[in-house]
Amino acid sequence: MTTQTNTDYAAAALRISTGVLFLAHGWMKVSAFTIPGTVAFFESLGLPGVLAYFTIFAELAGGIALILGVGTRLVSIALIPVLLGATWAHSSFGWSFSNEGGGWEYPLFWTVVQGVIAVLGRGAFALRVPELDRRLGQFA
Question: Using CA atoms, how far apart are residues 19 and 30, in angstroms rounded to an integer?
Fold first, then answer.
C-alpha cells in the first residue's frame, strides 16, 4: 500500500472537480442548448459544425475519465485545445466571465488548471486499470 500525500489529495480534488465541471458543460450542450443548437453556435462562430460533436464528446468522456482518474494526464492534455477554443470563442466578450456572453478569464483559467493536472497526475482516489496504466505509461 502506498502512502498518500497532501499533493495526492490536492490533485484528486482538482481532477474530480474539473471532471464534474466538464461533465456539466458537456451535458448542458446536449440537454439545454441541444446538439443542433450547439452545432449552430459553432457554425455562427465560423467553425465547422462537426467541432461541436467533438467538443461535446471531449467534455462528456473527458469529464468521466477525470472523475474516475483514468488516463488523467493524457485526458487533461487533450482537453486543453477544447478550452483554448472556448477562450477564443469568448474573447470578444471581454475579460470577465460575468459579462454578457461570458468573457475569456474562466476558460483560460481552466486551461491552466488542466496543465496543472497534467503535471500532477491523477492523485488519490483514482481507478487503477493496470493494463491501461502500462500502455499509457507516464500519461496514466
Answer: 17
Extract the C-alpha cell encoding 29: 450542450
What single string gives the DSSP state of each residue in 85-124? HHHHHHGGG-S-TTSTT--SHHHHHHHHHHHHHHHH-S-S
Q: Is the whole-model pTM more than 0.85?
A: yes
High-pLDDT (> 90) share of the chain, %: 78
Residue with C-alpha cell 484528486?
12
**Residue 112 one-letter amino acid:** V
Residue from 113, 85, 96 nearest 21 by CA? 113
Query: Structural domain boundaries of the chain?
Result: 6-139
